[in-house]
User: What shape does this take?
Amino acid sequence: MMTRLKSIGAMAILVAACSNGAADEVTQVPEIPVRVAPVTRAAVALPITGTGTFGAKEEVQLGFKVGGVIQRITVDAGQTVRAGQLLAELRMDEANAAVSRTGATADNTDRELARARRLYADSVIPLAQLEAREAAARVAQADLSTARFNYQYARIVAPSSGVVLERKHEPGELVNPGAAVLVLASESRGNVLRVGLADRDVVRVKQGDRASVRFDAVPGRVFSGVVSEVGRAAEPGTGTYLVDIQLRDTGGLVSDLVGNVEIYSAQGDPATLVPLAALLEADGDHGAVYRLASDGKTVERREVRVGFLVGDKVAVSGVDSGATVVTQGAAYVRDGSTVKVVP
Assistant: This one.
């Protein structure tokens, strides 16, 4: 009987020893190495997005001051021109005739005025007659000046260097005074992306705000710029306000390219920001992060609502600023995992 009790006791001690060893083995959970970063809070603004057309800030429609038949046009669409270059002219027959006719009239009235002054000096004619001759001479000179002015503007000269965007008429056509014959993209004020923004967006935009522009026609390139002008009145028909984005580098761009712009307003609202690398399982406006617990050894899963990107960070709600979240190694942890923070 005593021998049996000793055997049972020995077995109990062995079982207890095995159980304690198994328990010790279970509690020794391996630590997962991770890197962490703080959750910050800063004033940021949701980028204002829009679509616009690239081109010269100043597009000039060029025409003749007087009507007539086009004699010649010396440029085609797409051609670069320099300031002062002759672009087009009317048939000069009528203009030449007008200058000749008014010039002859002016010469005749000048001679009559000179004769009237001599006669008045000799008291042959009264003052009123002299004044009438003087008035006639002034009218004749004014007519001559008008004819010469019209003669000058029977030609179109480039007001500045630039590129011809459109040629609206051809030689031999009859054009009315002021009708656009050519459209010139002037280089005098540079090139811009012109965007139409709704009223709720334009009130947040100020001159000098940063912007980035992407063109489908130029994939892989991001063009930086600034807001150079903000419209003060809505455009008729669309109700949008025009905003000009002055681009810093326009190499490779041509007129009328369509670009997508993001404007970063200087006016912002406080937002909670986490590193983009900390965001997991992002789906639409939902995602998750792993927050380092107060003991500094375990992590806690937090569901967050995703807002918008700010550089290499993302605005979220659902985690407090000042917390620490896992950035590297987040894919290998679970809620409650034991971790080791490494530099």
